[in-house]
Amino acid sequence: MKQLVRMFAVVMIVSLGLMYFISYLNSSAGYSGDNTLTIYNWGDYVDPELLTRFEEETGIKVIYQTFDSNEAMMTKIEQGGTTFDVSIPSEYAISKMKEENLLLKLDHSKIPNLKNIDPRFMNLSFDPDNAYSIPYFWGTVGIVYNPELVGDLTFASWNELWDQSLRNQILLLDGAREVMGMGLNSLGYSLNDTEEAHLQEAKAKLQQLTPNVKAIVGDEIKLLLANEEAAVGLVWSGDASEIMGENEKLDYVVPEEGSNLWFDNMVIPKTAKNIEGAHQFINFMLDPEVAAQNTEYVGYSSPNQAAMALLPEEISSDERFYPDEELTSRLEVYDNLGKRMLAHYNELFLEFKMHRK
Ligand code: N2P
């Protein structure tokens, strides 16, 4: 009998331990129970005060994780094992995730604030009827530079980046599409080009840029440029606006050969656990006051017309970040080039990075 009790105790202890271990695994994998919401966003891409406000208003606890490229985000979601309730990919990634059946259809009746979005940002080709994604921020890719440190250069052309005077003076954002796109654009090709000869030409041209490249970096690019650690940076427009807020000497330009126009939209990944809370969060972020506060904080361009009306004129009328038609006509949105071609872009970018070492 005693032995039986002992055995029972051992079984109990082992199963309790196992339960604890499983719950630990779940929580470290981003498990969202009813009262938590796991958000997977770009770094530096939300005002943290708004997350607290959302928690206070809804009683939902936010678990927040970040990524620094669409590629990294997609890999993590594709692999599974993590359950994110809301994520914020860019358009070509949304198109790819839809194809791979990684996204949930949204219930628009739970997002009444959708009416605040400017119709220009709705119903775009990567997600007709916004069935799977809701606009968050948008912007361009361009050059932020310090006029005091670059002589006569104004970066009207991408090719000025190759100027010998810029030795070790350029920081590049760490993005395969952005850097390859810049190489392609500098040659007069589309940033969606898939012709092998053009891609090899772009890679070879990027390799010639190597002596001028000081580093390829993530979000720290903002601090480095604001502190004048380098004279020039290839950046997303909103990062430029934040950098320029820190250091007024700097300017932002989109070279005339053209560049990228991108859209980052909120989505609910298929593996979401708190679908109700995810809709609540999306709707919360579309509230005019919330969106205006978020726009001022992160520096990116808002697709929310009700929020735009609340922003100071110096933000809403700045054509560097809210480009006019002429500039817009020179911009291209990234196409979803398909799994193989995207992998090829990544590979070429990686080869360029390795070449620097
Ligand atoms: C914010 C990154 C914005 C990403 N740190 C542009 N798609």
Salient structural properties:
357 residues, D-Maltodextrin-Binding Protein, domain 2, 14 helices, binds pentane-1,5-diamine, alpha/beta, 10 strands, 42% helix, 15% strand, single chain, three-stranded parallel β-sheet
Kindly describe this structure.
The protein is of the alpha/beta class and 357 residues long. It folds into two domains: 2-137 and 264-316, D-Maltodextrin-Binding Protein, domain 2 (3-Layer(aba) Sandwich), CATH 3.40.190.10; 139-261 and 323-355, Periplasmic binding protein-like II (D-Maltodextrin-Binding Protein, domain 2, 3-Layer(aba) Sandwich), CATH 3.40.190. The protein is 42% helix and 15% strand. It has 14 helices and ten strands. It has helices spanning 2-28, 48-58, 70-79, 91-99, 176-186, 196-209, 221-226, 237-246, 275-285, 288-298, 305-308, 313-316, 325-328, 339-356; strands at residues 36-42, 61-67, 86-87, 134-145, 170-173, 213-217, 232-236, 251-253, 259-266, 331-332. Strands 4, 5, 6, 7, 8, 9 and 10 form a seven-stranded mixed β-sheet that branches. Strands 2-1-3 form a three-stranded parallel β-sheet. Strand 1 (36-42), helix 2 and strand 2 form a beta-alpha-beta unit. It starts with a helix and ends with a helix. The structure holds pentane-1,5-diamine (N2P). Residues 42-45, 90, 219, 236, 262, 264 line the site of pentane-1,5-diamine. Residues 42-45, 90, 219, 236, 262, 264 line the site of pentane-1,5-diamine (N2P).
